[in-house]
């Protein structure tokens, strides 16, 4: 996407907002068990992957997440060669446009952009070229996913390579990998510096019963570093709201989750 495209989009929404400007007021959290202020995994940048088709849908979801209690969202579009060839500059430009729209509508939520990288050799080519978007400032949290039937040994080898390159590997939705339903394997990954980001929707069985069981196990063993919505659409928020009402969120409050440590404004690292 070219710069002129984004300038045109920005101008259109500027005109639109001058007519339909709205304010999202401060409101208390409506989910008493919900302890999160930061989402670290969301596909809400329009037209970059399988998330919202346009910016209005992005805004609709973000407004609802604000009402749910979120005050910061880290946007993580897919990066997968041949499918989602999202360059850092395109992601950051899309972030700029979305931020501008939210600012004009007085939606006081902080946005940051990183990416969800597919585990493939191209990822390591990007790492070598320092064309990686991470979150967490100098922590350089690198969110990655793999094939759902990836061998644990390959995951471990790849995570070690990521760590050796100076990044902190964060495995997206480990509960959804069928080959990770083994506490010994999970502990080996954690021992080698892999952080786990569990999807909130998994706690309701949204993906599958085995994914729900493994998510609960990871929480009970205090092996979860981040919880994320992995939100792609407004409809998906229903399962997330349902999860907030579960008793397991009382156990989540006891975890040393890193989500809310990211609330202070920190620029994305492009390195």
UniProtKB/TrEMBL annotation:
Reactions this protein catalyses: O-phospho-L-tyrosyl-[protein] + H2O = L-tyrosyl-[protein] + phosphate
InterPro entries registered for this protein in UniProt: Caps_polysacc_synth_CpsB/CapC (IPR016667), Pol/histidinol_Pase-like (IPR016195)
Entry EC no(s): 3.1.3.48
Broadest EC class assigned to this enzyme: hydrolase
Keyword Hydrolase belongs to the record: yes
Keyword Ribonucleoprotein in annotation: no
PANTHER family assigned: TYROSINE-PROTEIN PHOSPHATASE YWQE (PTHR39181)
Family note: Belongs to the metallo-dependent hydrolases superfamily. CpsB/CapC family.
Protein name (database record): protein-tyrosine-phosphatase
Naturally occurring in which organism (per UniProt): Emticicia aquatica
């Amino acid at each position: 996407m070219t710069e002129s495209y984004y300038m045109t989009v920005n101008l259109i929404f500027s005109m639109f907002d001058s007519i339909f400007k709205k304010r999202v007021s401060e409101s208390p959290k409506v989910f008493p068990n919900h302890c999160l202020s930061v989402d670290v995994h969301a596909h809400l940048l329009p037209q970059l992957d399988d998330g919202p088709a346009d910016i209005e849908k992005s805004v609709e979801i973000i407004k609802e997440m604000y009402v749910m209690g979120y005050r910061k969202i880290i946007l993580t579009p897919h990066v997968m060669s041949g499918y989602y060839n999202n360059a850092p500059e395109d992601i950051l430009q899309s972030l700029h446009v979305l931020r501008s729209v939210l600012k004009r509508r007085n939606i006081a939520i902080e946005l940051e952009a990183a990416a969800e990288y597919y585990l493939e050799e191209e990822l390591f080519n990007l790492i070598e070229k320092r064309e990686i978007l991470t979150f967490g400032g100098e922590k350089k949290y690198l969110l990655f996913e793999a094939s759902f039937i990836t061998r644990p040994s390959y995951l471990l080898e790849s995570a070690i390579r990521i760590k050796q390159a100076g990044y902190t590997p964060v495995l997206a939705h480990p509960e959804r990998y069928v080959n990770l339903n083994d506490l010994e394997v999970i502990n080996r990954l954690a021992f080698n510096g892999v952080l786990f980001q569990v999807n909130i929707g998994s706690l309701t069985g949204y993906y599958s019963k085995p994914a729900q069981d493994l998510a609960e196990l990871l929480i009970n063993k205090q092996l979860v570093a981040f919880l994320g919505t992995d939100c792609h659409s407004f409809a998906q928020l229903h399962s997330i709201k349902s999860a907030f009402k579960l008793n397991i969120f009382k156990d989540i409050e006891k975890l040393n989750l890193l989500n809310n440590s990211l609330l202070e404004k920190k620029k994305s690292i492009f390195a």
